[in-house]
């Protein structure tokens, strides 16, 4: 789960869900003869208020997970959006159908407003550019250490331990037999030199065999090692040793 993939629209959905949960404990109606909150009836408390909260959670989960799991062929994002819209719709008719002898309480009014905001943000989030901005700004990558300086240590920093590229002749192998292999490696090194880089936004990493499903996600603020050019992409090695192809190399920062 990557919380840096959350957008401002997701932040609005989270805030509205918190208000909706709080509203469920406030008075539904304002009258001396009718008092109580949404939890006096499970249909209103669990079915309407918590339905909206669960819908908001599904919307956010669908955004955080790199590969959302489908249940009965349905993704959590669209299902959560439908829950928030349904919650706002039901609370609207609760407001309209308030008996004339009593008035709507703070819990009902605040609940409707919160459900309406959650539904609007869930629907408009992928469509409005202002809501698509990152909720948590990506940290700037640590600047590479000057030549000769002591590196911070550990994998993931320019100047840290790097895998060895190219090999020495094995025991028992003649020097002449190793020359063609070394010459080929020298040509490859001249064409491409491994380097450290960081991504400006979360980007998927795909398997080397070309399968369409991503195997991992690169996060901003972390240095990764590009070990080979693969067409327009880069064969990238992660901190845990896994390798994959980064297809979107636009605006990456070289270390």
From TrEMBL:
Keywords linked to the UniProt accession: Membrane, Transmembrane, Transmembrane helix
Superkingdom to which the source organism belongs: Bacteria
Stretches the record annotates as Disordered: 147-183
Residues that span the membrane, as ranges: 12-29, 41-65, 77-96, 108-131
Low complexity bias spans: 162-183
Keyword Transmembrane assigned: yes
Keyword Metal-binding: no
The protein's name: Uncharacterized protein
Annotated source species: Streptomyces mexicanus
């Amino acid at each position: 789960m990557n919380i840096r993939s959350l957008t401002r629209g997701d932040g609005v959905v989270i805030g509205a869900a918190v208000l909706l949960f709080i509203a469920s404990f406030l008075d539904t109606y304002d009258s001396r003869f009718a008092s109580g909150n949404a939890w006096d009836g499970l249909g209103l408390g669990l079915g309407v208020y918590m339905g909206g909260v669960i819908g908001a959670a599904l919307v956010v989960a669908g955004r955080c997970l790199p590969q959302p799991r489908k249940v009965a062929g349905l993704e959590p994002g669209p299902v959560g959006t439908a829950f928030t819209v349904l919650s706002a719709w039901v609370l609207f008719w609760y407001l309209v159908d308030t008996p004339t002898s009593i008035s709507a309480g703070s819990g009902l009014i605040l609940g409707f407003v919160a459900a309406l905001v959650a539904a609007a943000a869930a629907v408009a989030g992928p469509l409005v550019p202002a809501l698509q901005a990152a909720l948590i700004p990506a940290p700037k990558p640590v600047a590479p250490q000057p030549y000769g300086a002591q590196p911070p240590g550990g994998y993931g920093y320019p100047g840290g331990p790097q895998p060895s590229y190219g090999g020495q002749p094995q025991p028992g192998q003649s020097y002449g037999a190793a020359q063609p292999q070394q010459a080929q490696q020298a040509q490859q090194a001249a064409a491409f030199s491994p380097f450290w880089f960081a991504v400006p936004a979360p980007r998927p990493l795909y398997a080397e065999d070309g399968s369409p499903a991503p195997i991992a996600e690169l996060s901003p603020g972390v240095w990764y090692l590009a070990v080979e050019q693969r067409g327009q992409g880069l064969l990238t090695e992660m901190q845990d040793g896994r390798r994959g192809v980064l297809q979107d190399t636009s605006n990456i920062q070289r270390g």
